[in-house]
Design goal:
By secondary structure, the protein is mainly α. Helices cover 45% and strands 9% of the residues. The chain is built from 13 helices and 7 strands.
Length: 354
């Protein structure tokens, strides 16, 4: 079934896409079952292939990595019925199933499904990598943040650019004490470059006079730290990721620090029916809301043009407090006020968008 352009309807088109995903996933399950049967029976030998991977590459044109992952999932699924059901009902994608099936057991598969529902696919991917490193078959039980991990930063270079840059990096590393931790070294290079830009004379003297040095931050990185146990995390697109507390200590030497006491997160008493609407959101309150939410829209995870939205509107008695305010970007905020996006929940229980 397809919809003509003149008859397009968002809900109908979404339903059609869901049906397509369901069909794709269930078709993939049939494929996996057939691959497992071919693997267990070794019938691929009669087709001139030495292994199931060789069969998938030679007869079906799979890449080596894709053939290996299909074989691995096909072998694991008979012991993972809940994962199979979740995938068949389009509750998880193939990439997520592939990752989770590589570590999950019949004892822990539901924990991985719960982790996906709570934190999303990116977080599950990182949990899987951490679980493999730790030798465990379940997601971590930490409530504060996702496990620490290394992130690779990739640049696309031509061969001559690569050779020239590597030579310069070697010289720079020697001046800074030799190769070591890549993160601080790269940050030093970038800070030096930004400093050189700030020292360059501007071609537009008029615009320079309108700017006050130091009024705009050079970067916005949001850290969270528990004042009691000093558990620390950095905010990322996938959520909070745990880091050493010393990293927060170093960052806060030249940064804005916002302290939010536990009592500030508790809901205020509701307004009486005859009371005036609560105050508008002050710049200080907005800063606290954005800091709590990691300077990211809680719907799309965007970082630009952020607003502090009242979940229960002021006109209906909603309070201007942390528990009733959530960070949204300009576009998601507009969708909420157009009734195309619904936000529910509180700061304490968590917010949901549908």
């Amino acid at each position: 079934m397809s919809l003509s352009k003149s008859a397009l309807d968002a809900h109908a088109l979404h339903d059609q896409i869901v049906v397509c995903v369901l069909n794709c996933n269930r078709g993939r399950l049939e494929l996996l079952d057939s691959i497992r049967q071919m693997d267990e029976s070794r019938l691929y030998v009669e087709l001139g292939c030495s292994s199931i991977e060789h069969y998938l590459q030679k007869k079906l044109g799979f890449k080596k990595s894709s053939g290996w992952s299909h074989k691995s999932v096909a072998r694991a699924l008979p012991e993972l019925p809940r994962l199979r059901e979740a995938f068949g009902n389009a509750k998880m994608t193939w990439s997520t199933l592939r990752e989770v099936a590589s570590v999950a057991s019949s004892r822990t598969e539901q924990l991985w499904i719960d982790c996906l529902e709570k934190n999303g696919a990116d977080a599950v991917d990182r949990e899987v990598k951490a679980a493999k490193g730790d030798g465990r078959d379940a997601p971590s039980d930490g409530e504060y943040s996702l496990p620490a991990h290394l992130v690779k930063l990739t640049f696309a270079l031509t061969a001559d650019q690569y050779e020239a840059i590597m030579e310069k990096l070697k010289i720079a590393q020697l001046k800074h004490g030799g190769p070591g931790d890549d993160g601080p070294f790269l940050e030093i290079l970038i800070d030096s470059y930004l400093k050189s830009l700030a020292e360059e004379p501007s071609d537009n003297a008029a615009s320079d006079t309108e700017k006050t040095p130091g009024t705009e931050p050079t970067k916005t990185v949001v850290y969270h730290q528990c004042p009691t146990c000093r558990a620390s995390a950095v905010e990322t697109a996938a959520g909070r990721v745990e880091i050493e507390s010393t990293a927060v200590d170093a960052a806060t030497q030249n940064a804005t620090v916002i302290h939010i006491a536990p009592e500030e997160e508790q809901p205020l008493a509701p307004l009486t029916d005859d009371a005036e609407p609560d105050a508008e959101t002050s710049s200080e309150m907005r800063a606290r809301v954005l800091a709590r939410d990691g300077h990211r829209c809680q719907s799309c995870r965007g970082r630009h043009e952020l607003h502090a939205h009242h979940v229960q509107s002021r006109s209906t008695g909603g309070r201007t407090e942390l528990d009733n305010l959530v960070t949204t970007c300009k576009y998601c905020h507009g969708l909420v006020h157009q009734d195309r996006l619904v936000v529910t929940g509180t700061g304490l229980t968590g917010f949901e968008f549908s």
